Each structure stands twice: as C-alpha cells, then as structure tokens.
Amino acid sequence: MSVLPGWRAAFRIARRDALRSKGRSALVVAMIALPVLGVTAADVTYRSSEPTLAKTLTAGLGSADALFSSAGLGPVPLEQLPDLRTWGTPPGAPEVDSSTAGPVDVPSAFPEGSRYVTEQPVPATVTTRHGIANIEIVELRTSDPVVRGKLDLVDGAYPEGKDEVVATEHFLESAGLAVGSRTTLRGPEQTYTIVGSVELHSDLAANALYADPGAVVAPWKAASARDDTIAPPNPGDTKWLVRAGAGVTWADVLAANEKGVLVLSREVALDPPPDSEVPLAARAGNGFPDGSVELSAAVVTVVAMAVLEIVLLAGPAFAVGARRSRRQLGLLGTCGGDRGQVRAVVLAGGAVLGGIGAVAGVAAGLGLTFLFRPLIEDWSGSRFGTLDIRPGELLAIALIGLATGILAALAPAIVAGRQSVLESLTGRRGTRRSSRVLPVVGCVALAGGTALAVVGGTAGDTQLVVGGSIVAELGVLACIPVIVGFIGRLGSRLPLSPRMALRDAARNRGRTAPAVAAVMAAVAGTVAIATYTAGVTAEHAYDYIPTLTPGTVALVVTPEAEDDQFLLARRAVEQNLAGIGDRADFGRVWAGSDCSVYYEDGCGTVELVKPTGKDHSCPLQGAGARKLAEGLSADAHKRLMGTPACVDEYVQGSAFDSGTAKIVVGDAAVLTSYAKLDDPAAAKALADGTPVLLNPAYAQDGRVTLKAVHTYNEADKENRKLHPGRARTTTDRLDVYVAPAQYAATPGIRMILPQRTADRIGLHTRDHGSFYSAAHPPTDAEQQAVSAAFAQFGSGAYLQSEYGQSSRDEDVVLLILALFAGVVTLGAATITTGLAKADAEADLTTLSAVGAPPRVRRTLSGFQCLVVALTGVLLGTVAGIVPAVSLRLIDLREAMKSMRAQPMDSAYTPIVMPWETIGLLALAVPVLAGLLAALFAGKRLTLTRRAV
Predict the structure, then answer these.
(1) DSSP letters along 851-915, please?
(2) Domain ABC3 transporter permease C-terminal: where (predicted)?
(3) pLDDT, tens digit, for every residue of 680-691?
(4) Which of 775, 704, 755 lies closest to 586 in space, CA to CA?
(5) For the sheet containing 703-710, what is the strand order?
(6) 403-421, pLDDT tens digit by residue?
(7) Which end of the chain is more exposed for a tag (fewer CB within 10 A), N or C?
(8) Would strands 182-185 and 208-211 be described as parallel, antiparallel, or unpaired?
C-alpha cells in the first residue's frame, strides 16, 4: 500500500469512527474548540478596540477631512508635525505673549471650496432631576453629516431650534433625565428641551450637552450684558471641522501654518510626507517616536503559555478516544495492518476532529464577539467602529487548533501502535513500568526553567522570562505521572470510595496525567496573570495619595462666603447625604491680609518651620540624595519614604486643601472623626490649648516653631483695624502634643491648632468647613442635590469626597480569569471522570454484583473528578507563580532605575498572591466538579460478561 492511499484509508476510518461515536467526537471537538474560541474572541476584541490612528482620527474628526484650530499666538508662522503631536514657532522667531496676541482668521486658511462646521465648548451648570450638575455644553451642529463618526444619535432627534439640545446617554442616566426632559442653564436661566441622546464613540462615559451654534454662548453673553449679576460665559477655543473637495494636503497644512493655524488632516496623518518636507521633523531628526506600541512582557508571556495550554487541553479527550477504539484498532491489526497504519488511523482522527474543532472555534469566537460586542464596548468605554477581522491571524489560530488535534493524538497513537493485537481485542492493558528518566528530566527542567526565568526578570529580558516559564511548566508536566503515582499511595487509610479513586488515578496514569496537565495549564496562566495583576494593584494602592481620610467627606466654604452661608451649607449636606455621621467643624488660619479673598500682594503667611538635622530633613532630597538612592533596596526606599521627614514632601498639595501651612483650627472632634486619632491625652491637650502635631518631623524637644509674616494690604481695612501698625514677622515656639508617626500622612493637615492659642499669638481665624464621617461617598444624585442646595444661597461652598483608588478593572480581570480557569478545570475533570468510568466498567460491574449501593458509584465518580481537579489546580498554582514573579522582577528593575535617577520616585514593586482567586480555584472549583460528577453518575449498570 502506498503512502497516499494508506492515509486516505486512515482518514476514511477516522471520519466514520467520529460519526459512529458522536458523543465522544463532540466532546473532543468541544475541548479543541474552547481554547480556539477564546483566542479568536480575544484577537478580534483586541484588534477592534485597539486605538489605531484611523480610529483616533474618526473620533476627533468625524467624517471631516481636517480639524483647523488657532494656536492662540496670533497670526504668526508656526511649524507642526503631520499628526499634530508637536508644534511650535520657527527658530529665531520672536516670542509671542498669548495674552496679548491678536485674533487669527482661521477660515481664510481653508482650501478653496471647503465646507465646515464649528465646535465650541463652554462649561456650565444645568438643572437635573436630582438638583444641578456641572457639565460641558458644546455648540456643534450634530445633525451635519460631517459629524458622523465623532458622535451619533442613539434615540430621539437632532436639535432643530435654539431651545433644543441633545445629551450623552451617560449624562441622562446620572442626571435622572430622558429624551423629552427639560433642563435649565443656571445663570442666564435658559431652558432647553432634550430632544435626543447621543454617544461619543471614543468616550461612552462623557457627560455633555450639544446645541446648535448660537444657541448657548450668544444668548448667555446678551443676558450677562443686560444684567451684571449674571456671570458671563467662559467658552473654550473654537475648532473647525472642514470637508474639502480634494482633501487637505500637506501643502494646505503648511499654508495654514503660515497664518498661525494648526491643522490635523486625515490624509496627511495617514500618509505623512517624508521628514525632509517637514521642517520640525527635519530639524529634530529621529527625536520623535514613531508611535509604534510594543507588547508588554506580561502579554508576551501569557500568549506563549496560552499556546501551550491549547496543546494540552485536548489530551484527555483523545485519551478517551484511544481507550474506546482499542478493539477497532485490534481488528485493523488482524486484517494485516502494521503499527504505522494503526498510528496513522489515530493521528487521522486527531486531524479530523482537530480541523472540525478549529473551524468551529473560530466561527463561535466570531459569533460570540459579535453577540457580546455591546457589553464589551460598554465595559471598555469606547465603540469599536467596525469589527477588525484579520484573516491571516484567524487562519494561524485555526492552524494551531488543527495542530492541537494532531499533537494531542500523537501520544495515544504511539501507545496504540505498541499494543499487541491480543491486548487490544481482549481489553487487557498489560503491565508497563513508568519511565524513571522522565521525572528526573522534569525536575531538572523545573529547576533550570525557574532559574532562567528569574535571571531573565533580573536582567529585564522578556525572552528569557518566556522561555524559562515554558521550560519550568514542561518540567512540571514531566513530573505529573510520578506525582499521580505518589498520590495513589495516600489513600490507604481513607474510606472505600476515595481510596479507589486515588488508586484508579495512579493505576491509569495514561488518562489521569493528561487531564491533570490540562487543568494545570489553564490554572497556571490564570495564576500568572492574577499574581501579576495583584502586584500591580498593590503598587498603585501604595502610590495613590488620598484626598481625605477614608470614610469622610468634607464641606468646605470659600473665603468669600458669609457666616450664614456656612450654616445653610451644613444643613444642605446633612439633609441630602445619606449615611453621614459625626461632624467636626474646623477653621482656617492666616496672618496679615487674607490673600485668598481678593488681594494680589501684601499677603501674610503662616509657616511651620521644620528643624534641621537628619531626623527632620528627608535624605532623599538635596545634596547626596542620588548617592543614597543608589545604595537603597526597594524595601529600604519604601521605609524611608514612609518616615515623617519624607512623607510630607511627596504628598504636598495633593490632598485636602487646608492652605499652604496645612494647619486647621479645631477641637477633639477633628482628631476622632477625621484624623482617626482616638487618644484621650491628645483630646485633653487640645482642650487645654496645646496644639496637636500630626507630623513629628516638625517637632524638636516637644515644641514647634511657627513663623507668621504679618504683611498688610492697604485695602484690607478690617484686618488693619484689628492689627494696626507696621508689617512684621513673628516667630513663636509652641508646646505641642506629638501624635504617633503613623498619623504624619493625614491628608491636608500637619497640625490642629486650638482657637484660643491662635488668638493668643495674634493669628486670624475663620470657619472653613466641616468633616463628616460617611458610610459611602456621595452618589451622583446626592452630589447634584447638594449642589442645588448650595446654589440657592450662592457659590460659597463645595463638597469634597474621597472615592479611593478604583480597582474595578483589576477586579473584573481577576474574576474573568477565575471563571475561565474554572470552566476549563470543570471540563477537564469531567472528561477524565467519563474516561475513568469507561475504563472502570469492569470494576463498577463487580461493585454492583457484590451489592454495592448506587451511592458508592456516585461517590467514586465524584472523588475521581475531585482528584484530577485538585491536583491540577495545585500544580498550576506552582507553575503560574514562576512567570508572575519574573515579570515583577522586570518591573522592579525599571522602578529601581527610575528611583536612582529621581530619588523621590517610588520603587515599591510588591509580589502579592491573589489568595481569593487561588482559593476559588483550589477549593470551590474542585468541590463543584466532584459534586457535579457524583450528581450525574449513572444509577444502574448493565452486567456484562467479562473477557477471559
């Protein structure tokens, strides 16, 4: 028999066998199609959501050819890059003051015969169902076809008059409004009807209203001119969306630059001219990046491990086929077929089912991506535009699926080729000793791969990390048969069902090991990404600087507010915010003229003077900081940054605004409700007139130095009456109660000053606001209701909240990973349970014959499934830690480089285990798999005659 006819017969047998055993074939196809589906969906989703230049241009230009705008420097020559990332004035050009620059006639720079629409935003305050909200109103003719692609109508109609607007869907949802609702622009009190809802393709969470040109700014200006109590509008710069008949060329861009106009042209950005024709790029040489985006080390590693996972997933399924087809293969041997032809039949089965699974997986991936596209877009916050389907990449994914089928059938083919005809026909397996070399090779590969990955992480080499991680995982795979055999010895003291399950797994390593490998591969990838993501999340949490202490909101009144406004604002907060508790009032303090009101010069200041010396000055600043940073580890740098001497340096100006001195006037309530310092001694000190210092770095021998510059502006008549005389500087040494060091980073406050102490040293004070303990941050509705109440008595108050660092994206990623690994674990464990049941028919028949109740068979099936799932999860956790740790070492290396260049930059790069995800995989999923296997195990067995 020649080669081609032999393979033709093998494929024919494989096709008929697949049709004969439809259930088993469907199972094999599903196991191959599942990872192909996932990779296909991920590829199409990534490509469709990737912010390519074409999509970015459409989001900014709509269907226009170009966006024209003024640089704000007047009609002076400019230079720009083709994609407008950088622009400037030509070398040697005189400097231009933008505040005195004249207007630019932008329309004169349009190509001849162009048509355009204008876009001009203006910040405004509008009424909502709950109260009022700050929002941006954009004057843009949304009904013009030029705008299509930038934003589109979702519901209702476009504005047709000066009293109609459209709103983004996100604003309608947060404001409690709908199409047909009316909203009023505060100030000129212009009322508009919302006639439609729109969405911005690039920002689905945008809060904005859109009106036709002339519907907002012009009447607002007219109302302000008639009534001086109405503040005039503060519109942003006008932009022009231009559609030219022949497009906007680079020559048109250069001509517009000569007139002081900047241009973002679709034609030029997509097909830029050579650098020799771009004056700015020609001078800069290669200094400008090409905009290409490289895959991160994490993505590269995960993709490599995903490919390995796809190869492993189909192993248990083909082990089922090999076991069930033994008699057929034996008959092939009796008809004169040699071992090569037996192997060809098994491999042909892998090719047939692998091809079907690959095609089905790609088709299902495309279908599911299309079906769940709206959910994916809402989660990502932007629209795809069109699905970006790349046939070459999908073909490569399908080929991987086909190769998966062939590779998964390779081991069963070799085993089938080695079996004697008698063993195949009788179903006897014979006795074979496990390889003693393979576990040794596996241990060496595990140790060597781990070392290689760690070295790659330390050296910042992504390729070494990828290679080492794969080698380490292959090492664990090689050790699985020995591990399974060892597990079988652990059941000697267990009850009947778990003991039989462990021994059956050890005796049939040929089917148990591939199932464990499949679970391990899925869990390893999940644990790798989850561990890396958990570390990055912890790093972000460390770098995050809170605005307020957790569980608090702050009502702040501006210096211009009257005393009665503070009382009204406090009442508004207490009536409209749910879940608020204790209140602590606080005041601000200053010396001399209060420059926060309206004075421009002659201002007084209050300053806490930090003592000199190593205990008070941050060593990461000033001379010797870089030299010190070079010898610090990341942990030592973190400890140093957390000291009182350094913590105040990097949080300055980033938290609650209590003034440059960060001193507030308050009592013990501020300590307990805001600083969270429940210390009776500190409360007694405030009651006795002793300030409480939250940052010990400012204290020396229990005292602080307070420097006050009493400089008065002549217009500040009120303070002049209270403190007559010449300007002076006073320095006071105050006894203070020094709080523990952990309170040094209290947002916005260094020291709490009693009112009578401020009066004694001649400082000015005034109510500044109140802190409230809160069960949750204000919702959009509550914030709008409070803003509406504030607006009733003027604009002298605002609410400040601490929402904390958002980890929603990381939590969603971890949840998706856990669900994916759980599905794969359940699938692989279910398959191996079915295989165990097929292989153990004789044992189950014997159990039934001797009177074993059905629950024994059920518990046996459940424990068989549990053994595979739990073993695979534990091994996968170990294998997944290797790449995650190596990737974090790469991040640590980059952070250390940044820290040594800028000593105040954080080098904290923690490795955090995602115990919630690991716990879900290690406990919930195996138990669920075992319960499902026990639940669906057959109640009755048909007694058959054993082969002899």
Answers:
(1) T--HHHHHHHHHHHHHHHHHHHHHHHHHHHHHHHHHHHHHHHHHHHHHHHHSTTS---------H
(2) 303-420
(3) 999 999 999 999
(4) 755
(5) 605-609, 703-710, 728-735
(6) 777 776 665 666 555 555 4
(7) C
(8) unpaired
For 389-418, give the DSSP string. --HHHHHHHHHHHHHHHHHHHHHHHHHHHH
- The rounded radius of gyration (Å) of the Cα atoms in the chain is 36
8 A C-beta contact, residue 638 and residue 904: no
Nearest to 591 by CA among 708, 491, 506: 708
Closest CA to 153 of 167, 170, 164: 167
Question: Do 313 and 824 contact (CB within 8 A), yes or no?
Answer: yes
Max CA-CA distance within the chain?
A: 120
Best CA proximity match to 504, nearest among 496, 326, 413, 314: 496
Of the candidates 311, 347, 360, 331, the residue with the CA atom closest to the CA atom of residue 40: 360
Structure token digits, residue 313 = 């997933």
Domain definitions of the chain by residue range:
55-284, 445-544+807-948, 545-611+658-801
Q: Which two tokens stand for residue 73?
A: 């420097």
Residue 78's contacts (CB-CB under 8 Å, 6 or more residues apart) are 71, 87, 88, 89, 90, 257, 258, 260, 261, 262
Q: How confident is the model at residue 288 (pLDDT cuts 50, 70, 90)?
A: very low
Distance from chain centroid for Cα 639: 27
CA 593 vs. chain centroid, Å, equals: 47
What is the C-alpha separation between 937 and 833, in angstroms, rounded?
10
* List of residues 6+ apart from 748 with CB closer than 8 A: 547, 548, 655, 656, 657, 658, 662
CA distance 293 to 287: 16
Q: C-alpha angle with apex 772: 768 to 775, nearest 5 degrees?
A: 155
Query: Please, which residues bridge with residue 608 across strands?
Result: 706
| Contacting residues for 597 by C-beta, under 8 A, at least 6 apart | 559, 560
